[in-house]
Amino acid sequence: MNIGVFTDSFRPYNSGVVRSIELFSREYTTCGHSVYVFCPDYPLMHTIEEENVFRFMSVPWPTMTDFSLPVPISAHLNQTIERLSIDIIHVHSPFLLGRLGARAARRHKLPLIFTFHTLYEQYVHYFPFVENTSKQVVQAIARNFSNRCNVVIAPSQLVADYLRHIGIKTLIVKIPTGIDMDEFKELDRNWLKNNYGVRPEEKVLLFVGRLGKEKNVAFLLKAFQDVLKSIPDCRLVLAGKGPLEEDLRQQCRQQGIEDKVVFTGELTRQQIVHCYASSDLFVFPSVSDTQGLVIGEAKAAGVPVVAISAFGPAEMVNHYEDGLLTKFSLPAFTEAIIKLLKDKELYARMSKKSLKNAPLISSALCSERMLEVYQGLIEDRGYATKVRKPFNKKQFTDNEKKEKVSAL
Q1: DSSP letter assigned to residue 21
Q2: Residue 252, domain extent
Q3: What is the pTM of this model?
């Protein structure tokens, strides 16, 4: 089949959405399908010309030089879709190019599928022109867009329940972004020690992600300061970049832990994999991630996880099996980190289980499920209605309660 992907972000920009598109596209291509990506250009970054990638003129975001807003206008889009014989359109945003993709799907009478990657109301701080807009309005925009799609993909069941709770009536199918297990075949367990001067006796805590407000890294730094009181031979590695990097560096100086925290900046995929492999514990404080793909990647390297039990992470971590989930509490999060670092038997058991559980969400398995949904929509336009299940509001309330409860 010929798959049209519309996204407001793509490489060289780096994000969970971009990673998801890359992994699914790679698997589709391996299976003999064709993927055509419609995405922004990045005038301030080096963009490589790629086959089957169609770039839209974009405007650099003033506060983030690596991010651009695409201009959703094209005089040739309809002819391009016809020329490519697109069978289905998959959008990854309810804005800009996502809306353009939705209009194209309606015009050409194609099935429309949307992956709900982001809890958009948690990210309004990146958009000054809507920063004062209520979360309810942003939520309404995403809801109305979703209800015009044939299928909405949720990366986790808690997100699927949340989407039903806010009024999305379209069929919702849970399909996470998978892990490329081949990346974890050759690992350098000493990479951080060799490249960042981490001493052999130091325990390494690793965070991988954007250094932005939504990732809750300031909370992590406070927790790390408390961990050091109990385990002085520790180092925290923050792998990634983002708008709050300088603020976080300043926080480290104020807390007196600047010599214990490593800021790596942007890394290549292979370097990130080596980061996982050469760390002792993966720490994830975000409460807004719809999946937390980095948690699965850490497990693929055999690294146990401590995460706050919220949305995606609540399902990516099997509590007391391959990691620990905590409530959104500084003492609980700190206690979990100390517990795993001190209990060698528990740590060894969780490390072994992490390696065993990671392949359960391989990119191959997840893409196979997505292709089944595509095929169902293409072959039977009544597919979404036939397989829709009623939403149980009580179940969502129960799940919401469970999310806030920790065994720690």
Answers
A1: H
A2: 181-360
A3: 0.86
